[in-house]
Amino acid sequence: MESTVARSAARARIALATYAPSEDSPRDRDLPVLAAALEEAGAGAAVARWDDPDVDWAGFDLVVIRSTWDYSWRLAEFVAWAERCGRVTRLANPAGLVRWNADKRYVGDLARAGVPVVPTRYVAPGDPVDFPEDREFVVKPTAGAGARYAARYAPEERETAVRHLARMHAEGLTAMVQPYVKNIDAGGERALQFFGGRLLHASRKGAVLEPGTAYDENKVAHPRLEPWKPTPAELSVAERALAAVPDAGEVLYARVDLVDGDDGEPCVMELELIEPNLFLWLHPESVPAVTEAIIAAAL
Prior knowledge:
- By secondary structure, the chain is α+β, with helices and mostly antiparallel strands.
- 29% of the residues lie in helices and 23% in strands.
- Strands 11-10-9-12-13 form a five-stranded antiparallel β-sheet. A four-stranded parallel β-sheet has the order 2-1-3-4, with helices on both faces.
- Helix 2 (31-40) links the parallel strand 1 and strand 2.
- It is globular.
- The two termini are 21 Å apart.
- Mean pLDDT is 91; it is low at 1-5.
């Protein structure tokens, strides 16, 4: 006899939103695996480009933003699509969260909520330039993904950093200036993945920003990626960050990126609510939980 879950899943029409990668841009290795798992569970699963004008998003019970990895180049267009999509069907994560998370000034919101974060200053076009003079620092845009327009500088490279800043400002971008957290070189960056309100799995990767790498050079987004078991302190900080998200109850999926600060304690580098890589190829045991959570959100 067909189970209640299977009968419910059969009523779910789910779209997994992605993008059209170019020859040298990354492809979502998890997308076919996830689509197949949803189909096997009895749901109707379609993979669709977010910018495809022929897609009828209203025809789905749920649209899950997955690998829309060109969104930061087309931010206004992407946010407008999310808002349109959210008006005709259920969108995960919702458009309001997309709008909030697309601008990394949310790091300041987390700090004001008492969440430990990497210290961050924002430099908008026309603001005075003030870089650290006693340590390495990072410059990157508040709207970016995959280390786009991000670079690491030593104090003596100030003039190069100024030119980097000028390039971003010419495009209307606001910059983030952060101290380079040296503990990344030894302990890496930990990514804690949540789905359906629960910890799904965690991973650790090496430093993305190597010294001397130009801001406009392509970077390896997740070097030396490996499974990781989060410490109680890491899990606590990640949960505090998620609790500080506006309308946190609407979050279907999230990735909290942590590093160890100068005091050795974990702090938030980024909180990804839009299109985090799930790394299911590294954590295949997580596929059933993701499938179940997506179907539950569609019903």
